[in-house]
Each structure stands twice: as structure tokens, then as C-alpha cells.
Amino acid sequence: MAENSNYKVPHKRRKKQQTNYKRRRNLLKSGKPRAVVRTSNKHTKAHLSYYQTEGDENKYFVSTEDLETYGWDNHTGNLPAAYLAGYLLGAKAEDEEAVLDIGLRQTKKGGRIYAAVKGMNDAGLKVPVGEEVVPTEERIRGQHIEEMKDIEVVENFEEVKQKIDEEA
Description:
Nucleotidyltransferase, domain 5; 7 helices
């Protein structure tokens, strides 16, 4: 351990590499809700998180698993599914303004995180993001998947998006 009194024990969640408190504080200073996007190999999850002193209040939680109720029958870990999950969250949250919270994730230009943000923005939720990191329209619609061999084609993208508009 420390040999002098200058050593400061880091917070538990920082030590476990779960929270960057400096980044979190800067996001909370905005006073806006945070649009939290998390990805895994199978799913993309997004929700709006409102700061409360006793703990954050999470509203409007959406996962790519929820797309099955709208007729999505493709893989849920791809770019079009992430876009539709963001679109569903934006449709539920309506006209709000939020800041993007990606946690400790490394970002990739044109990745699923930014596809979800594009979906949120297209549905009416205002999340500021640079246009250079947003995936192209062809990738959002899954046309890059069609070019690969032995992979199921995303066929019902527009149908699912239409159902989200009708129900939300």
C-alpha cells in the first residue's frame, strides 16, 4: 500500500474500471438527461438517465430484444438493430434534449453506438453528435450485410420502423 499520506484510495467503481467519475461529473454539469448506450455482442441497450441525489432515475429503457415485438426477425447485435433501438427510444422519449453517455467504451466511427444515436435523433430526441462519426445510410439499412456471404439479409427494416412510428 501507500508509504506516505499523499496516497488517495480510488473509488471502488473506478478501481474496478466501471466508472470514470471526471467524465460523469462533466456530463451531469449540463443538467440534461444522459442518453446511455451500451453494446454487447448480442444486443444494444439504451436508456435515458436522469440525475437524482439518491441515485440516477432510468427512464425509457430499450434493448434490441424489444424489436421482436415489432416484427424484427434478424440478428440483434448488428448496426440496423442498434439504429432501430435508438429510434424506438427516441419515439418513446419524444422531444427532449440529452447528452450522450458511452461510459468507458472506446468509440468507433460509424459504430453501433452512433447508429443508436442517429436513430434517437431521427425520432425526435436531440442528442448532439458530429456527422462525421454517424454511419452512412447504406450501413444503417443493412446493405453492407447483403454484400457478405452466408449472412441473412435485413429485409424488414422499413416495416419495423413503420410499426415503431405507429405505436409510439
